[in-house]
Amino acid sequence: MSRRGPLDPNAVKALNEMRLEIAKELGVTNNIIAEKDNTHIYEQIKIGGKIGGNMTRRLVEIGQNQLINKKQ
Predict the structure, then answer these.
(1) Using one digit for the tens of pLDDT, what is the confidence trace for 14-72?
(2) Contact assessment for residue 26 and residue 50, using Cβ atoms and an 8 Å cutoff
(3) Within a domain: residue 55?
(4) Is residue 60, in this structure, part of any structural domain at all?
């Protein structure tokens, strides 16, 4: 995703779904995500970092698998 947004507008929905899936796996409830006012800013940063890091890891794995499959 570029700084201006994703290259493919359809990717926004898929990335949001991935974000929510990872948040659930990490035990982050929808209440914490939705009610940001009730969560301390440092907790929000920590949660966001974990989710973003896992998203990046998964996207890299997907890309690597696609490259491997393309070479075969």
Answers:
(1) 888 888 888 888 887 665 555 555 557 777 778 888 889 999 999 999 999 999 998 87
(2) yes
(3) yes
(4) yes
Rounded to whole angstroms, the Cα distance separating 43 from 68 reads: 38
| Tokens of residue 4, six digits | 């201006």
- The packing angle between helices 11-25 and 41-71, to 10°, is 120
Query: Is 2 among the domain residues?
Result: no
Question: Which amino acid is it at 68?
Answer: I
> pTM of the entire structure?
0.63
5 is a domain residue: no
The boundaries of the domain holding residue 34 are: 11-71
Question: Within its chain, how far is the Cα of 22 from the centroid?
Answer: 7
